[in-house]
Amino acid sequence: MPVHPVDQVPPPTQLLATGLQHVAASYAGVVAPPLVMGAALGLAPGQVTFLVGAGLFTAGLATLLQTIGFWKVGARLPFVNGVSFAGVAPMLAIAGQQPDPRHALPVIHGAVITAGVLGFFLAPHFCKLVRFFPPVVSGTVITLIGLTLLPVAFGWIQDGHPERPASPTGLGLAGATLVIVLVLRRVLRGFPRQIAILLGLVAGTLLAVPAGAVDTSATRHAAPLGFPVPFHFGHPVFQLSAVISMCILMLVCMTESTADMLALGEIVGRPADPPLIAAGLRADTLGSALSPFFNGFANSAFAQNIGLVAITRVRSRFTVAVCGLMFVLLGLSPAVASLIALVPRPVLGGAGIVLFGTVAASGVGVLLKAGLDQGDNLLIAAVALGVGLIPVVSADFYADPAVPRTLRIILNSGVSAGCLTAVVLNLAFGRAAARGGWGEMPH
């Protein structure tokens, strides 16, 4: 019986190159939340560096859980798991409730552990919601994943300052990287074509050197070795309000991970059925529960790597497992980790346009298969996309204090808000259509 492409093991050279490509695509997303949290909590630079190393180390462990897995844990798909940026806002809110924000990490870690354990036991029940994801819903959600990620790429082009105009240097580096990736994809064949993103990032970084856009300060001051000592910031503290906030966040992350698994399942040709989703959610939540032991935060699937799989067509989960192993090693060696950080953000942004745009285009493909001319599918997709894009185009849309904080956590996640809208509309219009004879309910 032939081995499915997801379970095939590529040659060592290809494993290393494609694994490094996944590291390059997701590195910025993994280190951004620890950097934001460290700065917001007023930690010293050395402590912030420690927090970043912990984020890399725990992201690697969570990725290995997802790709290799054990028992009923792990979707065994080419998924990168990393620190969820959706958790930054509620964690900052938890820190704001403490007398001294610098001592908030034990409270945050206690809340993440509890939420992770709760999510682990909810996974086999949560996965049953997949029946509410017919093609019109899953296609809408996959499209939203890509569209909500594109502003991240634009922010990278603006060098991490979305409130400022993009500089000519940033635009030039992003445009050059984008063109290089497209040219490489057009002219190369075989394995070199599969690592066009990685080659584009290297070429873009080399172009950035004479432009003075490569920051080497992190490399000069990074220690060669380091280990995320368990509970470095103190033993976990379990505070009820913090636990409730993180449990709500965990449900949001589980919704997004379910959507990501549906998207990746479509791309790699292994549809995400309830057992696979349950196994994937167990890996997400177990990784989150274990992460605070090594000073990390909640982990979830990284949607940006779905685009990389779609472009390269390298579907092997072992390439991403190598990425997870690299993250573990990077977490143990700040000096090596700093080398990855040499890639300027605008260069990442240029590649990100390709990666994230591919995810959105994949969702459009699923929508076309769903038949937008059937019943009210077009209306369902249109409204859900509109609702999902609200927090993308207007970050402060739900910022009014009158909107409950719990509700804001859900609404400020474009994927979650759009997903819930699509599910509800599909149930309402689909069933109405079935009763009223307007057409068949989507399957």
TrEMBL record:
What Pfam families would the database entry show?
Xan_ur_permease
Taxonomically, the superkingdom here is Bacteria
To which species is this protein native? Streptomyces orinoci
Q: What keywords are assigned to this protein?
A: Cell membrane, Membrane, Transmembrane, Transmembrane helix, Transport
Tell me how this protein sits in the membrane. Answer: Multi-pass membrane protein
Q: Which InterPro entries match?
A: NCS2 (IPR006043), UacT-like (IPR017588), Xan_ur_permease (IPR006042)
For this protein, the parts annotated as crossing the membrane are 44-65, 77-97, 103-123, 135-157, 169-188, 195-213, 233-254, 318-341, 347-366, 378-397, 409-429
Q: Which residues form a coiled coil?
A: none
What's this protein's name?
A: Nucleobase:cation symporter-2 family protein
Give the location in the cell: Cell membrane
Family recorded in the similarity comment: Belongs to the nucleobase:cation symporter-2 (NCS2) (TC 2.A.40) family.
